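Sequence only, no structure available. Ideas?
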Amino acid sequence: MNLQNKSIVLNVVLAIAVVVLGVRLVSGVAHAKKSAAEAASAEQAVLDNIATRTSIRDYGSRPVEKEKIEKMLRAAMAAPTAMNKQPWHFVVVDQRATLDALSDANPHAKMIKKAPLVIVVCGDMSKAIEGGGRDFWIQDASAATENLLLAAHAMGLGAVWTGAYPSEERSQAISKALSLPDNLIPLNMVVIGYPAEHPQPKDKWKEENISYNVYGKPLAISTENPSASKAETTAKDNGSGEFKEFDITSDFNTNPFNYFCGHGLLLCAGDKSAANAMTIGWGALGTLWGKSTATVYVRSDRYTHKFMERSPYFTIMKFDDDRVVDYMGAHSGRDGNKAAALGLHIAYTKNGTPYYKEASVVIECRTMYARPFSREGFRDDVPRDFYADPKTKGFVHTEYIGEVVEAMRK
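Reply:
I predicted one. Tokens follow.
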């Protein structure tokens, strides 16, 4: 092989190596992106499960499967425990006679009469720490109980924690019903079944219950960790930044033709007793009947639709955080409190219209017109084909035209 041929072969080999390396790099980047997306999805699933769990006190007759019972117990036993003592014991009850006896043992556990399952969480004093740390069994068994509750919710079950210890009367009655030995103390009874009710989770987030570094100190910029300071400052501004009113007819510098498309908008309706928000991508701003108006569209099967129907006002909110809009668009308010899951803080206008403090722009509207689309009115194949798509399930949108009564931004 002459020098020229060797050079050609070498160039071909190098080219192949570069291609292989490039494919591996691209594959590696794609894999990294996929892994990051999967990690973010898993993280959100865990947080959603915590935020949407609520106490269920009414159950259907369907029994709880044995494999789900084991999964709940495995989750319970994965809880943290002081010195790894694991001072717990779980009594699984699914026989009706014993369930009824447990219901009678606790005046606040009458829901057991309809429940197919109770797991009694006990402290095992034969495994408890000796000396001053003996009562740590209460913390350990409580942590196990919370794990059990979260596992039940994750599997579509409903559950409620009913207390026993330190009520001597309840503890003795439960111990008698279960023939517990002296070393077992019933801390609580977790009542479990398939839900026959779907209450909304309570939003328990309260900033006043938090101090930083010392009692009573609010969130502040740390001079020790500049990267953390920026994140903390952003969180504070988004949550508590002041809104200022502005004139939407003269001081609105966004193109109204694309404002509703890709601008991170939420629609919210309701009152102080109940409210719901959803992501929107359709809408219009303009003038009608001598008023500055905003038009939005809500399909009749959406959970927000019933709030729009009964509320005289609604708000359109802009969010700079795409995660809020993505989550609101992918989850239904029927399944849980979306605002609580996202850590949003609800506020109300002077008219009592709900909005979220974390929004960057809020437009409040008074509903002037509300009417579902009429299929007979479609004069083009675009709307006809849209509502013929199986994804719409035959539901059409209701058009809501509202007078803009207030606009504010940060």
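Residues 3-52 form the longest helix (50 residues).
Hope that gets you unstuck.
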